[in-house]
Structure prediction request, 130 residues.
Amino acid sequence: MSSPKYWREMPQRYRLEAIKCKKCGKVLFPPRLVCPACQSREFEQTRINNTGKIETYTVIRVAPSTFVDQAPYIVAIVNLEGGVKILCQVADCELNELKIGMPVNLEFRKIQQEGEDGIICYGYKCVPKL
Prediction:
C-alpha cells in the first residue's frame, strides 16, 4: 500500500470508523460516497465493533514480495458484530486451531514496512478471542 493511501485511510484503520446511512441504516466500512442499498449520500460517523467470528479463511503460501517473510499466513473474512465484514490477516493462531465460526477480536498490529526508509504501516489483524 502506498504511503499517501495509508495516511488517507488512518482514521478508519486506527479507530475503526465507519459511516451509517441516515436513510436505511446500513453501516459501511470502509466509508463510501453512496450507499449501495438505497443510493443515499447522507451519512453519520459511527464506530464498528472489534469482535466477530471467522466466516471463511484461506492460507497464503506464495506471498507477494512485501509479505514473503510471513508466508505461510492466514487471511480471513471476519463478520463483525453489527454486520460489517472485513478481510484481514489472522495472527496468534496455528492453522490446525482455526475454525469457521471461531470468535475473534481485532487488534492493531504491524502490517508491513515500506521503502528504503522503513516506514511502518499499522492496521488491524484478528486474533482468537480468549
Observations:
- The domain at 49-130 is CATH 2.40.50.840 (OB fold (Dihydrolipoamide Acetyltransferase, E2P)).
